[in-house]
Each structure stands twice: as C-alpha cells, then as structure tokens.
C-alpha cells in the first residue's frame, strides 16, 4: 500500500510535467490546427540555454533565460516559418515541424557532445520520508509549479480577452476574423505560451529525480510522452491535455514498478490505444452538439 | 460610404467569381443584393470584409473603398476597426462558447470600454433572448436565436456598416419576418446595411436600394420599390434555375411565396 501511494504521488509529479507539455501542444493545435512535432526540440533548446547560462546567472536566472528562449524560439518558428506558409495544408506544416525538430535536436545534442549535464535544483534534492513512503522533492515541486501554471492558464483561457479570442479562433477562424480578432496575434501568443511551458518542463525533466539522466537525446524522448498525453486527452481539449498528462505519468510510474521498467514506455502508448479504441476522439475531444 | 468599383475576384488560379461589380451604399442606407446560388453574393461580402483569403480567393482588379479609404488589401481585423462588420452565411456562432462569450468575442474589435458597454446594452435591448440565455452554449440555441446571436455579436463592436449574408437562411417564415424587422431597427439606429439575400420578398421590404447579381455581374439595380415591381426581377429569380427554385420551395416548408406567382 505504501509503495502504491508513493508511486501515485511520484507518478502525478511526472504527469504534471507531461501536462505542461501536452497543454502547450494542444494550445498550438487549437490555434493553428498544426500538430507541432517540434515540441520535444523546444524542450531541449530551453534546457540547453539553462546549461549555457547557469554558471554566470545561477539557477533562477538561467531557468528564466531557458524558459524565455524556448518561448522565443517557438515564436520565431511561428513567425518566420509557419506564418509565411499560412495557406499551406496543416499536414505539410506538421511535416515541416518534424524537419525542424530533427535540426534543433541534432544541433543541441551535437553541442552537448559527451556531457550530459543535469540542470540541477534550487531545492534540496534529498527525498522526503513521510510515514513509510518516500517522495521526491522534484516531483512535489513540479506538481506545485504545474498546478499554479495550469490554473493561471485556465483562468486566462476562460476569462481574459486573450482566452475568448483564442477559443473563438479555434472554433471558427472565419467568424473570428469577421469579429476583428487578429488571427496572427492569437497564433503568435499560442506558440509563445507553449514554448514557455516547454521551457518550464525541461527544468524538471533533466534532473536526477525525474529521469536519472541529464540533458540529452533522452530528454527529447521523455518529452515525447506529451504526444500520447495530448492525444488521449483529445488533442483539441485543454482540460484533456492536463488529464492526459496525469494519466501518462501514472501509467508510466505504475507499470515501471509492477510490470517492468522497460515496459513503462510502451505502457503509456498502450493506454493511449485503449482510450482511443473506446473513445476515438479522446477523453475530452470534441463531439459536435450543434443544432442547425 | 461604401463604394465598390469594377471589382473582379478569383478563387484559386482560374475560377472567376466576380467580373467587374460596381456597388454603392450611401451612409445610413440599406442595400439589398439579390441573386441565385453562385451569383457571387457571398464573394462580394468577403471582398468587403477582407476574408477572401480564407477561401483562397483574391481581388484581381478593381477597388473597395470605405469612407474614401481603400480596404481591398486590408486585413479583416483592420476593416472591423474601421467599422465594417460581417455576419457570415449560416450564422457560424461559436457553438461551444456561451452566448455571453460570443458577444464578448464580437466586442474584441472595439477597444473602447464605454463603447463596448453601450453596444452590449443595445444588443440586449434588440435581442432580450440573448440576455436570458447568456450562460447557455450557443450551439444549443434554435436557428432563429443563433441568427440573432450572430447579428448581436456583430453589433458588439459598434459597426457603421453591417454586412449580412443570407440571414433568412433555413429559418421559418415568422422568424424571417422578425429578422427583417430587426434589420430595419438596426438601420433606424444609424447603421448602414448590405443585405445579401435569396429571399427577395424580405430583402426588398427592408432595403431602400437593391442590386441583382447574376453570374458575377450586376444585372439590375434600382430602388427597392422599382425592383419589387419589375418583371425582370421575377424573371431573373425564376430564371430557369430549377435547382434554386426547389431549394427555396423546400426552405419555406413547401409554401409558395408571392415572388413565385406570376
């Protein structure tokens, strides 16, 4: 029972980080209908900037730089590449992001060379013992930070002009344009937010507690878990992304313990397949309920 | 106020939709644009509201001016800020958002908060039902209510020119009559209107001036009264288009309207 509780808490901690990634992924999809396969490379890029600036700026400063650079890279991708190809099919744009992902990832990996630096923590890395269970501090911090960010996101998404514009455009691009909603601004902010969330996520992923591995190609493949998270949540549902992230985190933690560590990666995708078989549009994906 | 000169529009590389259209809307006027399916009515509105590009269309020649300012190359958001707002065909409310949020989305084009508040009061006065259903999802409204929401949403930015694309589409005759009254009211409050319609009876009752589009050209123009009285309008409407006749017939629940009686 103690093991189970421990797994649940730590799984949720991991899941919260996946939720940040999946949320960004979904926000981009909603705003542009583009599936952003370069999401993992945004994670790596943010992490790399942390590694580079850590010595001179310290953890807090470097983390801010990392978050900001991931956000700006996402913005640059949108402004310089996607915005110019607006009339292109969403599928070709998705392919474009695959190419971009390869370029950014390989470049960061090349620059890292043989070093696999941990990003380090600003908190005490000692696990916490409560009763008979061991909790990783990184996971608890991740859970807290994600909860704050996700809450802030949902409040903005629901109540701010930005959120209303974003949802309106996601639902009907032409009607939104007719209302004077600036499509390019909505799209750009979506990428900016998604990039920033990826920059936050990497701070937790490339730590001893979370993955036991430093910043490397492995970070990219861990970030890939955001895809099944977003898809099983329903690709166009922000709430679904959060739930999907948590489900993926839990599935990974539980299957690693009870089945085998090597199986945990496939377990995540198996869960996704089961969800899709039962609910083809994901847990919270849109099913139209329009009266005509 | 709005003046369209020799407007030529194409979709893709080859499909020409408008071949040189001239249209004028005087300040505070209501212009009805009639015509059958495919005549280019919606294309004309898209050219004015700057949304052609979303349909892969483009202006190849001619101009659209609003208050003496060229808007044929402007983007939709800029055109809304000048005071030209469109209600798209088929209503296209944001179905998953609440009625209130739909109205809010409509007000994003108006930066001024006091103007927004005034617009909201006006919309709630015109459409009390929208205040009653504020918290409901727009997709669950009836067709007539959705049309009212679509018009209300467009009024939220306080437009000076309202472009309506077939507001009567798919609505019961009683509701169509109500929409007609609402358009008159909006006009009486000082907003100019371009009303694109297949329902000529309603449109000519509401408008002062009218033009008939036929395969991308203005085939006929005049005051609404002149056109209503003209045999040509009736001929053009029937025009041998069995398809549009049966569609209209179906649309009005099998009732034959006055315009079909010779």
Give structural attributes.
heterodimer, A: 292 residues, mainly alpha, ABC transporter involved in vitamin B12 uptake, BtuC, two-stranded antiparallel ribbon, 11 helices, 2 strands, 73% helix, 2% strand, globular, B: 262 residues, alpha/beta, Rossmann fold, six-stranded mixed sheet, four-stranded antiparallel sheet, 25% strand, disordered C terminus, cell membrane (chain A), transmembrane (chain A)
Structure description:
With 292 residues, chain A is an all-alpha fold. Chain A has one domain (2-278): ABC transporter involved in vitamin B12 uptake, BtuC, CATH 1.10.3470. Helix content of chain A is 73%, strand content 2%. Chain A has helices at 2-32, 39-82, 90-112, 137-159, 161-171, 173-178, 183-205, 217-223, 226-233, 238-258, 264-278; strands at 128-130, 133-135. Chain A has a two-stranded antiparallel ribbon with strand order 1-2. In chain A, β1 (128-130) and β2 (133-135) form a beta hairpin. In chain A, α1 (2-32) runs parallel beside α4 (137-159), α1 packs antiparallel against α7 and α2 (39-82) runs antiparallel to α7. The N and C termini of chain A lie far apart (53 Å). By secondary structure, chain B is α/β, with parallel strands linked by helices. Chain B folds into two domains: 1-83 and 159-173 and 182-240, Rossmann fold (3-Layer(aba) Sandwich), CATH 3.40.50.300; 90-158, no CATH class. Chain B has helices at 41-49, 76-82, 99-107, 113-126, 128-132, 143-155, 173-188, 200-206, 224-229, 231-238, 242-251; strands spanning 2-11, 15-25, 30-34, 57-66, 69-70, 84-87, 161-165, 192-197, 209-214, 217-223. In chain B, the strands form two sheets. Chain B has a six-stranded mixed beta sheet, sandwiched between helices. Chain B has a four-stranded antiparallel beta sheet with strand order 2-1-4-5, with helices on one face. In chain B, α3 (99-107) runs parallel beside α6 (143-155) and α7 (173-188) packs parallel to α8. The longest helix of chain B is centred in the C-terminal third of the chain and has 16 residues, at 173-188. The model of chain B is unreliable at 238-262 (pLDDT under 50). Chain A binds chain B through residues 87, 161, 164-165, 167-168, 171-183, 286, 288-292, and chain B through 49-51, 53-54, 56, 75-77, 79-81, 85-88, 92-97, 101-102, 104-106, 108-110, 137, 139-143, 146, 153-154, 156-157, 170. Chain A: Belongs to the binding-protein-dependent transport system permease family. LivHM subfamily. Chain A: InterPro entries: ABC_transp_permease, BCAA_transport_permease. Chain A: This is Branched-chain amino acid transport system permease protein. Chain A: Its main location: membrane.
């Amino acid at each position: 029972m103690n093991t189970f509780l421990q797994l649940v808490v730590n799984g949720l901690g991991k899941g919260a980080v996946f939720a940040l990634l999946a949320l960004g992924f979904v926000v981009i999809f909603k705003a542009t209908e583009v599936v952003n396969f370069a999401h993992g490379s945004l994670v790596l890029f943010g992490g790399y900037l942390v590694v580079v600036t850590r010595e001179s700026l310290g953890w807090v400063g470097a983390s801010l730089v990392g978050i900001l650079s991931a956000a700006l890279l996402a913005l640059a991708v949108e402004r310089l590449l996607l915005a110019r190809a607006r009339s292109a099919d969403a599928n070709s744009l998705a392919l474009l992001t695959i190419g971009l992902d390869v370029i950014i990832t390989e470049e960061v990996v090349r620059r890292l060379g043989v070093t696999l630096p941990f990003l380090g923590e600003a908190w005490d890395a000692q696990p916490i013992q409560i009763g008979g269970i061991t909790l990783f501090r990184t996971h608890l911090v991740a859970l807290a930070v994600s909860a704050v960010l996700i809450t802030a996101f949902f409040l903005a998404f629901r109540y701010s002009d930005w959120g209303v514009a974003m949802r309106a455009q996601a639902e009907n691009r032409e009607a939104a344009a007719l209302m004077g909603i600036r499509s390019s601004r909505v799209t750009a902010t979506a990428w900016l937010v998604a990039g920033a969330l990826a920059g936050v996520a990497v701070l937790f992923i490339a730590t001893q507690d979370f993955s036991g591995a430093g910043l490397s190609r492995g970070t990219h493949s861990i970030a890939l878990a955001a895809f099944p998270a977003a898809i099983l949540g329903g690709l166009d549902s922000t709430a679904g992304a959060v739930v999907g992230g948590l489900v993926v985190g839990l599935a990974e933690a539980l299957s690693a313990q009870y089945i085998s560590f090597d199986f945990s990666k496939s377990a995540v995708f198996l869960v996704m397949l089961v969800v899709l078989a039962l609910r083809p549009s994901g847990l919270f994906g849109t099913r139209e309920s329009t009266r005509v | 106020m709005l003046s369209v000169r020799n407007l030529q529009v194409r979709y893709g590389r080859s499909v020409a939709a408008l071949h040189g259209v001239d249209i004028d809307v005087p300040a505070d006027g209501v212009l009805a644009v009639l015509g059958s399916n495919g005549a280019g009515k919606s294309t004309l509105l898209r050219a004015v509201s700057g949304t052609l590009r979303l349909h892969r269309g483009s202006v190849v020649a001619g101009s659209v001016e609003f208050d003496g300012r060229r808007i044929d190359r402007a983007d939709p958001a800029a055109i809304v800020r000048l005071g030209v707002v469109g209600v798209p065909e088929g209503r296209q409310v944001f179905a998953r958002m609440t009625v209130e949020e739909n109205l809010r989305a409509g007000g994003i084009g108006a930066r001024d908060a006091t103007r927004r508040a005034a617009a909201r009061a006006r919309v709630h006065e015109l459409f009390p039902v929208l205040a009653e259903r504020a918290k409901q999802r727009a997709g669950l409204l009836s067709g007539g209510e959705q049309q009212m929401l679509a018009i209300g949403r467009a009024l939220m930015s306080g437009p000076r020119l309202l472009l309506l694309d077939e507001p009567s589409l798919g609505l019961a005759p009683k509701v169509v009559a109500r929409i007609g009254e609402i358009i008159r009211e909006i006009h009486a409050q000082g907003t100019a209107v371009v009303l694109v319609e297949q329902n000529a009876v309603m449109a000519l009752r509401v408008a002062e001036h009218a033009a008939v589009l036929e395969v991308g050209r203005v085939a006929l123009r005049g005051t609404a009264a002149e056109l209503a009285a003209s045999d040509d309008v009736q001929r053009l409407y029937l025009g041998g288009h069995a398809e549009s006749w049966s569609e209209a017939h179906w649309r009005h629940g099998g009732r034959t309207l006055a315009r079909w009686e010779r």
